[in-house]
Amino acid sequence: MSDTPVIGVLALQGDVREHLIALASADALARPVRRPEELAEVDGLVLPGGESTTMSKLAALFGMLDPLRERIAAGMPVYGTCAGMILLADKILDPRSGQETLGGIDMIVRRNAFGRQNESFEAAVEVAGIGGGPVEGVFIRAPWVESVGAGAKVIAEHGGHIVAVRQRNALATSFHPELTGDHRLHAYFTEMVRAAG
Known about the structure:
Blueprint: E1 6-10, H1 16-25, E2 29-33, H2 36-39, E3 44-47, H3 52-61, H4 65-73, E4 78-81, H5 83-88, E5 89-92, E6 105-110, E7 121-125, E8 135-139, E9 144-148, E10 153-158, E11 161-167, E12 170-173, H6 184-196
Parallel strand pairs: 1-2, 1-3, 3-4, 4-12, 5-6
Antiparallel strand pairs: 6-9, 7-8, 10-11, 11-12
């Protein structure tokens, strides 16, 4: 891998464009990923916000579930925001029928924990490892983490709930940093991809 890592954004559903912009600003070569052959060409992957049930069904439809699970299990750096966090959980507390996860982080996640769409909010969140003060988090029907296992490290909380977790090469936030113009979390993830390379 060159000094400019190639980072994909899973482009089945959700706020793909915003992540591509944020990654480009963090000096990564960003590209949408919809098929297994595109997944094979990236050094790391972002799982965007959207609707986690729809995303898991589309991943199955596009033949992406097993390739995604294999790459994540093999250590490919991955960053999930909101619905992406749910996809990275080893367990969902209240899964919808037919909803599958990719796994990768030893955590139990509660879907829509912060409330419905009309209860969306923004908040300043202190994230361990991110310098320059708190990041602005946009919470839209956001999940929270009920509990983490021994391998996972809590890196941010909000209102007494876990909202950001890291386990080895996997990173997850319940909020959307890509919607704020603050690209420090994307820069942090880009450094994770470089380090893994």
